[in-house]
Automatic annotation (TrEMBL), chains A, B:
SUPFAM superfamilies: Winged helix' DNA-binding domain (SSF46785). InterPro entries: HTH_MarR-typ (IPR000835), Tscrpt_reg_MarR-type_CS (IPR023187), WH-like_DNA-bd_sf (IPR036388), WH_DNA-bd_sf (IPR036390). It holds the Pfam family MarR_2. This is MarR family transcriptional regulator. One of its GO terms (molecular function) is DNA-binding transcription factor activity. It comes from Kribbella turkmenica.
DNA sequence: AGGATTTATCTTGATGTCGAGATACTCTAG
DNA sequence: CTAGAGTATCTCGACATCAAGATAAATCCT
């Protein structure tokens, strides 16, 4: 069964028969699937009145474990955004009462961002929903194939994980 | 060998042992890899003074074949952006001399966007570079695995391809 | 033919992000 | 102890995007 990428590659092969476009068989599909997953995620979070970017921050704090407290700097690394963006995100999450800013007792330059109870409840509920939805998406793929593909993707991601140290 | 997603999932399993997070073994890696690919793409295009979004539009026109001419509406569907975005993109590409707007002789509401020679040269060079770079990224994956993973990804994307229209 | 609906594109205002720079504090070397 | 380098966070301006609405033209229906 054909998909959009098959059509895309067919067009390129017609127009540029000199190029070998097979890398796109994998990588274009990764990009397109990721775009679709983003939209699906947004929809899953809508039921919990969370934006994707809100979930990203809350989830990083939740994963950190009690007392659900991280520095903005640490949050940057977890969420791969810049410092200006994180300031903005924390501002909005604090305004919604999902996190609060605490002064870092060990470094007066620093700040700690901590999940409130409401924030924890929100992220826990959203996470359960997200996983349920993702399980549906993967429904047609055998566990064996899922494990295989996860292994290949791990190899593909590794060079990038390494370069940022 | 571990990657960032392994660490992520380990944290979730510690904090929420009640949840089954295995869907993320595949889907989180897809999302993260896509983000890395975006950055890599941007870098590859830098040598040609193209932004990713510029390439997306030029590539859609290039794929269409001579005379490299599409309506804005058609470009929306190819690039998955909104009409306001496309107006903006075409404006900028026209200002750079990479495309030009022509009136549609068959529909006076309509416009046709056409690649200039400079636009065609730019996208052809960028495409060759992009593929070279992508081939490097996939270097460690056997052709057999690439074909396998492409097949699984095609299945995962299909539901999304279907739902639009 | 004429009025209503649909279609194609552009305009506008809001949003989230980035990147560069500012500020305040900490650490290190001498 | 202090000067300089380094670090953590925030501020600000620019930018690409989206969503909703405006405009204009084509198409449909009676």
């Amino acid at each position: 069964m054909e998909d959009e990428v098959d059509r895309l590659l067919e067009a390129w092969r017609r127009e540029r028969p000199d190029l070998d476009v097979t890398p796109m068989e994998v990588l274009s599909r990764v990009s397109r699937l990721a775009r679709h997953l983003d939209r699906a995620r947004s929809q899953a979070f809508e039921a919990h009145s969370l934006e994707s970017w809100e979930f990203d921050v809350l989830a990083a704090l939740r994963r950190a474990g009690a007392p659900y407290r991280l520095s903005p700097g640490r949050l940057l690394k977890e969420t791969l955004v810049t410092s200006g963006t994180m300031t903005n995100r924390v501002d909005r999450l604090a305004a919604r009462g999902l996190v609060e800013r605490l002064p870092d007792p060990a470094d007066r330059r620093g700040v700690l961002v901590q999940l409130t109870d409401a924030g924890r409840d929100a992220v826990d509920a959203a996470m359960a929903d997200l996983l349920a939805h993702e399980r549906t998406l993967l429904g047609s793929i055998s566990e064996r194939d899922q494990a295989r593909i996860a292994g290949v993707l791990r190899e593909l991601v590794r060079p990038f994980d390494l370069e940022k140290h």
